[in-house]
Write a structure and sequence with these properties.
The chain has 409 residues and is α/β, with parallel strands linked by helices. The protein is 63% helix and 7% strand. The protein is built from 15 helices and seven strands. It has a four-stranded mixed β-sheet with strand order 1-3-2-4. The protein has a three-stranded antiparallel β-sheet with strand order 5-6-7, with no helix packed on it. The longest helix has 33 residues.
């Protein structure tokens, strides 16, 4: 998400020496809702991650990396700058995160392109005879596309960065500043171009599937891609949904530039960066509701993408098996199995005596010790059996009156 502040701006910007004491600081629903959404989206990305890590699907791992990073930044922003809080409390943090968020839009689309390209290669049988060196080059290509290209976009952002950054209230936090001009349009069109290429690869994959649907299962097993037919189509569906969502977000940004702010002339580097150290501070109460809603639409792309990732890979049979293995690992780590085994053993004994008891049977006093297991019960039973045999010989009792816990009165 980025702020398109041109001349004139979309709404009043807080002057540099404006007092913040008159702004409203009362809690609003967004102060609670936005952090909760960011935290939930973060868990949505992390839960299905182990299977993708084992499968070594580079495109999916790059996608998760961008979504996790973006969710963490969104979560911090919603906590630091709720409502009308727009103080410059973390300038270095804003310098770093605004670049990351600006590149994340390209990164998510590039990751979707990597996924669709790999799926098309699997469906086209090209991956059957792939060697280790070819596989290595494919991984490097995915990394360059999924991480290198967004890094290049972060660097090129300085060309259209009219000032340092902007801070929006209402939980939006730090945002990259954009000078609305034709280079800005070029940067915003890059994810659109990647989305179109991803759609082409998706169409190729679908065409190859239709042509080889009879032996598609065998084809997936021979590709050594750790994919079943279910996983294949879920990856394809996830990539398609991400491409459409990102395409809509970028077209919305372009519509704001062209229809609302208009394009400014890019006269020179010095003209665009004349007041580069300025930080825009826009409290929530300064933003009209329609403008704030527009920023929320851009902000919601990351939670929507995270939710889609969870829906495709976090609620299936494989995910349930993964969650059960996590539960067993946690139980072993906390030694809960041993505790439960001890409790069940004690319950099955049905005999729990906490202290010694003394019972009088006429002239005989019986002392019974605590029993904690069936072995102890068997031992006591043998003692009673031996005792019953000696009962017929009173002279033996007179000789050993205290043996085995019995004594004559």
């Amino acid at each position: 998400m980025s702020s398109l502040l041109a001349a004139p701006p979309l709404f009043p910007i807080l002057p540099r020496h404006h007092s913040l004491s008159r702004l409203t600081m009362s809690p609003t629903p967004s102060q609670v809702l936005l952090p909760f959404i960011s935290l939930l989206s973060l868990f949505f990305c992390i839960l299905p991650l182990p299977w993708h890590w084992r499968a070594r699907n580079v495109g999916t791992l790059v996608l998760v990396a961008w979504l996790v990073t973006s969710n963490i930044i969104h979560l911090v922003n919603t906590i630091l700058w709720p409502n009308d809080h727009v103080s410059i409390i973390a300038p270095i943090y804003c310098d770093i995160t605004t670049k990351i968020i600006f590149g994340a839009t390209t990164g998510v689309t590039a990751a979707a392109l990597c996924i669709t390209r790999n799926l098309a290669e699997i469906a086209s049988t090209r991956s059957l005879g792939i060697t280790k060196s070819e596989r290595k080059r494919q991984v490097i290509g995915d990394l360059l596309l999924g991480l290198g290209l967004p890094a290049l976009v972060m660097i090129l952002h300085i060309i259209v960065q009219g000032h340092r950054f902007d801070i929006f209230g209402g939980g939006l936090g730090c945002n990259a500043a954009l000078y609305a001009s034709w280079p800005t349009v070029v940067l915003l069109c890059l994810p659109i171009l990647l989305a179109c290429i991803a759609c082409v690869y998706a169409g190729i994959a679908i065409r190859f599937f239709v042509n080889h649907r009879a032996q598609f299962g065998t084809l997936l097993q021979s590709s050594k891609a750790c994919l079943t037919a279910s996983r294949y189509f879920r990856l394809m569906g996830l990539a398609g949904c991400l491409v459409l969502a990102n395409l809509g977000t970028q077209l919305y940004n372009l519509a704001i530039i062209l229809a609302v702010t208009g394009l400014n002339p890019y006269k020179s580097w010095d003209y665009v960066h004349a007041d580069f150290g300025f930080v825009g501070q826009i409290p929530r109460s300064f933003m009209p509701d329609n403008v704030y809603s527009g920023f929320l639409v851009q902000w919601s792309f990351v939670p929507v993408a995270s939710t889609l990732f969870f829906l495709f890979f976090g609620i299936g049979h494989e995910a349930h098996k993964e969650y059960r293995s996590w539960g067993l690992s946690a139980k072993r780590l906390l030694r809960l199995d041993k505790v439960l085994a001890r409790v069940s053993t004690r319950k099955s004994n049905n005999i729990i005596i906490q202290r010694e008891t003394i019972t009088d049977f006429g002239d005989v006093r019986v002392v019974v010790a605590p029993l904690h297991s069936w072995d102890a019960l068997g031992s006591s039973a043998s003692q009673v059996s031996t005792l019953s045999e000696k009962w017929e010989s009173p002279t033996e009792w007179e000789k050993n009156p205290d043996k085995n816990g019995y004594e004559m009165a």
